[in-house]
Amino acid sequence: MHPNSFWGGWHALTLALRAQVASYRQRLWEPLLIVVAIFIASAGLTAVTLINQGASQQLNSFRLGPWTVSEQVAARRINEPVTQADYATLRQQGFDFLIAFTWQPSSGQLAVDTLAALSLPTNGALTQADPADTSYNGTTRLANLPGVQDLNAFYQGEITLQSHPLRGLAIVGRLSAIHRQQLQNALPEHLHVVPVRAQPTGSNLSDSFHLNLWAMGTLMLVVSGFIIFNALNLMLAARMPLLIKLRQLGIHQSTLLWVLMLEMMLLAMVGAILGVVVGTAVITTFTPSLNNLYQLLFDSSFNSPPLSIGAMILRSSLLSLAAVGAIAVVALRRLKGGMSWRKVLATTRHVDNQPRYWCVLAIAVVAMVVGASYLTSQLAALLFIGLVLLVGCVSVMMAMPVILRGLAHWVSAKRPVLHWSVHNAIGLSRRTKLAASAFFIALAANIGMNVMVDSFRIATESWLEQRLFAPYYVYTNHDGDLSTRADAPAQLLARYGKNVRLAGQHTELRSFPQLPEFKRYLMLDQQHSDAWPLFYGREGVFINQQLAYRQAIEVGDSIELSLNETPDSMTVVGIYPDYGNPHAQILLPDAALAEERDNITAYAAMMIESQTDALQVWLDAVAPDARLLARETLIKQSMSVFVRTFATTDLLNMVTMLVAALSFFVSISLLVLDITPQLHLLRTVGISPHIIKLSLFGQYCFVAVSCAIVAVPFALLLAWLLVAKVNRYAFHWTYPLTLDPAMVIQSLLVGLGILCVLLLLPLGRLKAKFTSQQETV
Amino acid sequence: MLLVQQLTKCYPGADNAIINGLHLNAGAGTSLSIQGASGCGKSTLLALLAGFERCDSGSIIIANQQLDGLSAREADDFRKHHLGVIFQNYNLLECFNVWDNVAFTARLKGNYNHQHQQQLLEELGLSALSRAPVSQLSGGEQQRVAIARALNHRPAVVLADEPTGNLDEKTSNVVSDLLFSYCRKQEITLVVVTHSRDVARRASFQYSLHLGKLCADSSRAPQ
Asked: What's the number of domains chain B is made of?
């Protein structure tokens, strides 16, 4: 015993550390693979975070020709808007990068000072023409600014700066610190620099998109946690024989725990920091490519995400340290468990063999399925998704060995290699359960999200197909009612609009044609038995899901509606889906709104293609700002917004899946080291290397497929929760859950494919040899 | 049954051949023990006899088949049919119980016979343990399983690398007796590499490997 207990403890600690480090000489792959696993998790988490941030910025920016505008000068208070004088003063002071803009209230189209935009001192397409050239008129300018209206064209007739003030002054390009300071000094008191807000319309899926990004970020965090814990758990398993030997030699378990924790913390920090650095470098390198891709595919932008490497390192480190803390508890239990490795192994009982755990799991699954129906808030739904994934992970851990035992029962012993392969997969499934859980979460989330998005896409598509009943639509700010003009070359049905407050909530009133032939164009979730007679008789109204869900209104209920001064009590005769609309909406017959309208949101043009030229000529004469759009174009535009919204989610999903699969690969690589003597035996008894590799790969596939089998039902439950609960409480709409088996199988195969390709990698060289005693220590 | 002539093996970078013109001739049912200092080439000799490694010159004939001309695939088939191997560390298939471990080689060769295996297990004192997972067995029991596995498919030659290296003296004696007597009875040629004089003494012929050649243990005279 050392004379001084402190120095004795220190001496024991250094000795144990030296023994630990000495083991690196023989089994360097172990710590290396642990670092790689943590590195992958950290890099994946960093990449997903940065993609998330970069993609989120597209919602807080708009395109102005070749530029992306993400900041603006805006009013501090609504009653002191940006004025023409403010704009002129600032530009006179040399702030040429400020461009006045506003949004059209009805269509959400952007209107800007195109003359100022064209004089921007950049090498963009806008500067190719001389703004002083009088032949270079508004039409030519607009050709260079696709999707943008000129402010002069916007402010016509009764639309004035008083009735429709400027939304703000767009800041084109990125401000340097000096320019920002100069601008802030020059701004009058009522103005300030703020990020651009999402457009009022046209990006109405943005909330859904934000929620998806948040969900994917959280999912990646959970998956990373599992991966890091799994890596450390594998390391603990590899270290235990040495730790037990050191304990047998008289080193106290607390000293050994410190040694283990020190080693794990060091490896975890190296992996975490490297992961953040590499993840950041990869996303930074690919930002221009991602931006080009976004512009090409979605007419959108992927901006350089704001980098905070320190914060990301801190987050990855904390996650790793939390995993080290958790593994310390496990290590302590094992070190207390016994003084011999054999005893530790003997006391390790598999939960999948114990009926009481199955009973608990069965009760949990039943309670989960029943409980899902009683969720009544967005937070509860999101927490419930977490619970579903947790129960799913436990199910994977318990079910994988059972599924494989079932398979082993059917595999004939007359095929000895296959027989061994399946039996060995049972043990492998127990040892890879944490990695399998990470893969399960990624796979279940991928399938669940794909089912949700597919259902949403199908619902939106069929809803658009049905709702857009006219072959053409006209959008204009024209003040009069074009549908009442006798000289119109085609029948125009006005869609009247009025905004009211119902129970303190902003609510849109919209007209619906009173003619019976249009009945079939209104898709209804629920309806009153006398819905249409009541509607035509102005006693009933149709309301959208958003209003029904927000205010818990059901068919047959009455609502108080003030069209003019006197409130009318109307019966709700039907509830219709209105995907993408953030607002509550009520449908009234044409005649009810024709007089009381605030505006006409659009005209449905009931005509054939040959009449379009005549209508266009007529519109140019009576309403020059009118846009005539074919039904197909509108559907295409809406669906492109849809694709843009969910493409990033798909990308994040894939990254998560890849990271989880990589973690599986690392686990397998480590575990293959442990079965090396068995592989030597197989070679020795005359089994060729490629048969052994095939049987190893078969084992990995058995484990992956058994994990996937458990993932599918959980993924479908997840999809139902996303559709029926999260959408219901987050956006106040629902749609039918569409289960396309081909899509589910495709998602499953993509996940398994990624995993299987990676799992081919650990199948290194196999050699038959007599393993000496020294080699196996 | 086992005929080795002028066998030579030299590792790249080594000054001397580790096996240097070695001769060996053993008939069916005979047993040979090979002793020698660590690093003298015992494991290399076994690896050559098993076809794991190729010799530089000379020839090995086992069960009338010349090993050095075989392709990798033919060598695999040869081992499957004619060789049984016993490792110092047993190398049992941990996912299987005793019965399946022992049956593995016979199933692979295609001559699995339930009664034969039952009898073999009885002779090796394993019949009561046939359904036990191998991870729950003692070292002696595990080695007996490894021996049963090496014998069950009725090979022509069994190669044993330190078969009792991990066992205590008493267990070592039991295991050795079983191995030698069974091979003698079944007319299997047994080659045992060992450090144990007690084990070596049980063999029909006892050799030492020295400077790449086999010497009769008593005189160390080259064969």
From this structure: 1
